[in-house]
Amino acid sequence: MIWARRFIAPAEWNEVQDQFESLFVKLGCPGQMMLVAASGLSPPMLFVSLPNAGLLNALAGFERIDDGELPAEASLLVGHNHAFETRFRYPKWKPVGQD
């Protein structure tokens, strides 16, 4: 499994998520494959895990990274919750106005 990231403009979000989801389904929904969004980063950043490096060519704009470059907190967009929770934790949301 490899990891990759992409800085993303808000207008590109849906297209990138749809592209990843299509690949995910085409491959039979692999257990370790996922698309996650890092919380609180500007510009927004997406991370993907892929079963092999050859699949990186199917996702334009993503660059391969080491595991150590992954955030501790993220939100699962596409993938299996169990695989996600072995690597990340969900961000703790605060009500607006509370710091």
- What is the total domain count? 1
Shape: globular
Order of H and E elements: EHEEEEH
- Briefly note the structural class of the backbone: alpha+beta
List the quaternary state of the chains: single chain
Q: Quote the average pLDDT.
A: 90
Largest sheet: 5 strands, antiparallel
Strand percentage: 25-35%
Strand order across the largest sheet: 4-1-3-2-5
- Report Rg: 13 Å
- Give unreliable regions as ranges: none
Show the helix and strand layout:
Layout: E1 2-7, H1 13-26, E2 34-38, E3 45-50, E4 63-65, E5 74-78, H2 81-87
How would you describe this protein?
The structure is a single chain. With 99 residues, this protein is of the alpha+beta class. It has one domain. The protein is 21% helix and 25% strand. It has 2 helices and 5 strands, in the order E-H-E-E-E-E-H. The protein has a 5-stranded antiparallel β-sheet with strand order 4-1-3-2-5. Strand 2 and strand 3 form a beta hairpin. The model has no long low-confidence stretch (mean pLDDT 90).
Name the descriptors.
single chain; 99 residues; alpha+beta; five-stranded antiparallel β-sheet; 2 helices
